[in-house]
Amino acid sequence: MSLNHQKIQEELLDIYYGEKHMTEEIRIHLDTCSECATYWKELDVLKNRMSAYDREVEIDERIIGRAFSKSNIIVERKKNLKDLLVFAIISSLLLALLGLLIYMGYGKSVIIVQIILMVCVPLLIPFMIRQRLMEEEY
Ligand SMILES: [Zn+2]
C-alpha cells in the first residue's frame, strides 16, 4: 500500500500545481487515508501561505512604486534648483556686465539695448514655454 500512497501523493502534487484534476479515485482515497489527507492539507496550508506571500509582494511593489515616484519628485526638485541657480548666475553676470558698460560710459546704449530687450523678450517667452513643455513630455 505504501507505493500506492506515494503514487497518490505525487498525483496530489500535480493537482496542487493545476496539472491534473482531482479524480474520484483520489477523493475516495483521501477520505479513507489519513496519511494522504494530511499531505493534502499541508499542501493546502502551503497554498494559503503562498497566496498570502503574493499579497505581501504586491504591497511591497506598491511601496517601491511610491518610493520611486518620491525619488522622481526629488530629482525634479533638484533639477528646478539647478535651473534656478543657472538663472541666478546668468542674471548676476548680465547685471555685472550692465554695470560695467554703464561705468564705461555706454549708459545710453545700454538703455537702448534694454528697451529692445524689453520688447523682444516677451515675444520669446511663448517659444521658451513651448520648449519647456516639449522637454517635459519626453
Ligand atoms: Zn494514502
Which terms summarize this structure?
138 residues, mainly alpha, 2 domains, binds zinc ion
In the predicted model, the low-confidence regions spanning at least 5 consecutive residues are: none
Number of helical stretches of at least 4 residues: 4
The biggest beta sheet is recorded as:
none
Percentage of residues in DSSP E strands: under 5%
Count of extended strands: 0
Describe what this molecule looks like in 3D.
- The chain folds into two domains: about 1-105; about 105-138, no CATH class.
- It has four helices and no strands.
- It has helices spanning about 1-15, 25-30, 35-105, 105-135.
- The relative contact order is 0.04.
- The model has no long low-confidence stretch (mean pLDDT about 85).
- The chain binds zinc ion.
- Zinc ion binds near residues 5, 8, 35 and 36.
What's the gist of this structure?
The protein is an all-alpha fold.
Secondary structure elements and their pairing?
Blueprint: H1 2-16, H2 24-32, H3 34-103, H4 107-137
Helix pairs in contact: 1-3, 2-3
